[in-house]
Amino acid sequence: MTRKQRRGVLIGTCLLVLGVAVGLVLYAMRDSIVFFYTPSEVTAMQIAPGQRFRLGGLVETGSVVRGEGTTIRFVVTDKSKTLPVTYTGVLPDLFREGQGVVAEGTLAADGVFHADNVLAKHDEKYMPPEVAKKLKEQGVWRGDAKASAGEPQAKVN
Amino acid sequence: MIAETGHYALILALAVAIVQMVLPLIGARIRDQQLMAVAGPAAQLQFVLVAIAFVALMTAYVTSDFSVENVWRNSAVAKPLLYKISGVWGNHEGSMVLWVLILALFGAAVATFGANLPHQLKANVLAVQGSIAAAFLLFIVTTSNPFIRLDPAPFDGQGLNPVLQDPALAFHPPFLYTGYVGFSMAFSFAIAALIDGRIDAAWARWVRPWTLAAWMCLTLGIAMGSWWAYYELGWGGFWFWDPVENASFMPWLAGTALLHSAVVMEKRDALKVWTILLAIITFSLSLMGTFLVRSGVLTSVHAFAIDPARGIFILAIMGVFIGGALALFAWRAPLLAQGGLFAPISREGSLVLNNLLLTTAWAAVFVGTLYPLALEALTGDKISVGPPFFNLTFAPLILPLLIAVPFGPLLAWKRGDLLAAAQRLTAAACLALAVLVLVLAFRQRGPWLAPLGIGLGVWLIAGAATELVYRVKLFEASRSEAWRRLRNLPRSAYGTALAHAGLGIVVIGIVVTTAWRSEAILAMKPGDTAQIAGYTLAFKGVVPRQGPNYRERVALFEVTRNGEKVTELTPSKREYTVERSGTTEAGIHPSWRGDLYAVLGDQLKDGAYSIRLYFNPLVRLIWLGALTMFIGGAVSLSDRRLRIGAPRRAQTKAATVPAAE
Q1: What is the DSSP string of B9-46?
Q2: Is residue B17 part of a domain?
Q3: CA distance B495 to B213
Q4: Position B603 in a domain
Q5: What is the pLDDT of residue B403?
Q6: How confident is the model over B353-379, as pLDDT tens digits?
Q7: What ranges in B425-530 are assigned the alpha helix state H?
Q8: Of B165, B188, B216, which closes a domain?
Q9: Kind and range of the H or E element at B81?
Q10: Cα–Cα distance between B481 and A133 in angstroms, integer?
Q11: Does the N-terminal peptide bond of residue B209 adopt cis geometry, omega within 30 degrees of 0?
Q12: Would the N or C end of chain A have less CB density within 10 A of its end CB?
């Protein structure tokens, strides 16, 4: 095999692998990326039932209702619009009323969001960045409201 | 006083790093031995100074000196000692000091053990290493000073994020950072070679052990992180394709490729330019990982810094180093002489294929991780790219590599015989096929792809064994001859076999646990029983308990199997007093079949608790496999040291006396 042929084989293989990779990435991009919306955007847009997306906002205070078995209903708000959510399963530790939450799932025809995954991240000071940004845009951002929790405590134990 | 000493040491270290960066570089340019000789002592001094700063910070943590703001924010009196220590790197500032400490350690190691390096190369390497240290020390001193005082000093601190108070996570960052920062050695050597315009096999012989050591630590660090996420986060999963996980996985993929291409360079003097580029890419990915995690671009448990000034600073560091390195590469790489030729079917060819597939795989991960950031910056649309994307792109790209792995070591250098290699692998292939058919016949549920995955894992393990069998001529030579060969086999051969077998073990673990895990979400009242994967769990109730710095509610499950008592599971929900937040502690019963995994949820309206149960079959193989890979690396590394001609421990009395070349 000449030097030229060897190089040909090498370049050919590289192009083949790269082609396959690009194809896979484009294919996967079409189906498996998930958009993030706030309740306001959901009401403004026509989202087809069955399309997966992430819903972000705050858990409305007083809205959490435990139903049959492990099913939980709550309302997500961005302080201008709200959207009811139903979820079956165990909620994360930091799921609290009035705190930020991101739910992933689909919108049913009756306007209820069926979540199969609820994220409330690991830090109590955590606000999903998307939510913080939207809240800022809407002027309801309270800044680092939780920062006041950082005052030195007089006594422990 | 201790905090001020630490702060002062950091500033001195910055000054020394700048000297280490400038003088040797000039010395190497004008061939001045004295200027070049500055590099070694400067690197050692820089390490000592950073170590003083680190110890000072650690002292402040251990003695709970809350007049230091960093300690007040991240520690508390009631915290156990282990977490007081690990609290040092459980925050942004402290973790950056650890980063620089490891960087300085690697620099000092080159200065101490690099007596047989060409002077010019050594001077250049240490200068580049010094420049990285200078950039990060400047970053710490100007934006992330851990020694800022508080006046008046508070009585008690705010405590460490409870999910970080965990033994596996205490050691996860040091290993991960050693991995990240260890790749800086390969980077510094690459830049030094480009500055010199010269590169030879000796270069690869030096770069390989450093890369291998970094790769081992990164492997273990990632495995620890995954293990922690498995038992601490309470989701029962081992990998989430979270951007932060990807940030550590990308340098691992690139580093694995680098490890293999450095072999070609060392043995055959080929692939020089590519190896240099890969060394630059690997460390660039490490820097990017640091940037993504530290800048707050991605918000997760890892992102301590929410201050935009820090993000911009790290972005600037990244831009200068990656941009500068690639520009230097474009300018100087054509000077490097091309090495040996080889046929497409050969050991070199197989390693090129390895590199090609690994590089493409990380590129796919790279796109998936950064696309949401880029899209948001460009259009403002917010998307998330989750596991489906990575499963669809990464898996098909890595699959051919896994099939090809056993062929590589059986092919000869320069020109290999694929048919002969295939014949040797017949037994391994038959074994893998037999397992595949058996699993296919006995499986009751689960995807049809899963038996294929198991077959692939068996193929990898059997392939690794095949290589050893043929190298010792187990079935050809007499038993004593085979024994002699077994003992004389270079350790790197064992290392390779172990690492490849470890990969097979990981594959089996991932496939089995993904395909056949059972999951149940139940509302259980005390007295109820649940069935999962042949186990019966009787829920006895929930009792409160007091820990050292938390209160918890513990659920008690009695686990039986076929009427016999197996164990008791005690999943709990902890409430940390000082930190005022909680964690979920899963109750896990490990066995050779798999892990029984129970999580206690909230109390429901009618007095029942929501309970999540999982059975994760063979899940431990994932970490066992990673550990095997780590051991493989260690075995290979122990061989390398002997071959380099570095001082042998038994022969030199004083470690500082270099062996004569």
Answers
A1: HHHHHHHHHHHHHHHHHHHHHHT-HHHHHTHHHHHHHH
A2: yes
A3: 13
A4: yes
A5: 93
A6: 999 999 999 999 999 888 888 887 777
A7: 426-442, 449-472, 479-488, 491-516
A8: B165
A9: helix B81-86
A10: 71
A11: no
A12: C
| Disruptive mutation site among B602, B603, B609, B614 for chain A (greatest number of A CBs within 10 Å) | B602
Q: Are B545 and B551 in contact, with CB atoms under 8 Å apart?
A: yes
Mean per-residue pLDDT, A19-37? 84
Is the pTM higher than 0.90? Answer: no
Q: Indicate whether B420 belongs to any domain.
A: no
Q: Which two tokens mark B88?
A: 């040092």
| Minimum-distance CB partner of A124 among B73, B372, B581 | B581
- Quote the tokens at residue B327: 């520009």
> Does residue B66 belong to any structural domain of this protein?
yes
Residue keyed to tokens 């095949």: B466
Set of chain A residues whose Cβ sits within 8 Å of the Cβ of B363: 21
**Chain B positions in Cβ-Cβ contact with residue A69 (cut-off 8 Å):** 522-523
Contact A36, A53 (CB under 8 A): yes
Name the one residue in this structure whose structure tokens are 């037999």: B434
Instruction: Spell out the SS3 assignment of B589-654.
Output: EECCCEEEEEEEEEECCCCCEEEEEEEEECCHHHHHHHHHHHHHHHHHHHHHHHHHCCCCCCCCCC
Superfamily of domain A35-143: Nucleic acid-binding proteins (2.40.50.140)
Instruction: Round to whole Å and give the CA distance between A93 and B573.
Output: 9
Question: Does residue B559 contact residue B620 with C-beta atoms inside 8 Å?
Answer: no
Total CB pairs under 8 A between chain A and B? 141
Question: Is-contact B387 B330, C-beta < 8 A?
Answer: no
Token couple for B160: 């460490």
For residue A116, what are the CA distances in angstroms to A127, B239, B555?
Answer: 20, 18, 25
Residue B88: which of B304, B312, B314 has the closest Cα?
A: B304
Quote ipTM for the complex: 0.74
Residues of B in contact with A124 (CB under 8 A): 580-581
Burial class (CB in 10 A: 0-12, 13-18, 19+), A136: exposed
Residue of B169, B552, B610, B614 to mutate when probing chain A, most A C-beta within 10 A: B610
Residues B635-644 have pLDDT tens digits of: 998 875 555 5
How far lies B6's CA from each of A1, B48, B84, B154, in Å? 63, 11, 18, 21
pLDDT at B159 over 60: yes
Instruction: Residue B11: give its domain's CATH number.
Output: 1.20.120
Confidence of residue A154 (pLDDT cuts 50, 70, 90): very low
- Condensed to tens digits (0 to 9), the pLDDT of residues B617-650 reads 999 999 999 999 999 999 998 875 555 544 434 4
Domain range holding B608? Answer: 518-618
E strand spans, B247-388: 383-385
CB atoms within 10 A of CB A119: 19
Best mutation site among B70, B161, B163, B299 for testing chain A: the one with the most A CBs within 10 Å?
B299
**Domain boundary at B165, B193, B227, which?**
B165
Q: What is the pLDDT of residues B69-101, one digit of tens each?
A: 889 888 888 888 898 998 898 888 899 999 999
- Whether the Cβ atoms of residue B582 and residue B573 lie closer than 8 Å to each other: yes
Q: Is A45 exposed, middle or buried (0-12, 13-18, 19+ CB in 10 A)?
A: exposed
Most confident of A46-50, A152-156, B78-82, B412-416: B78-82
| Domain count across chain B | 2
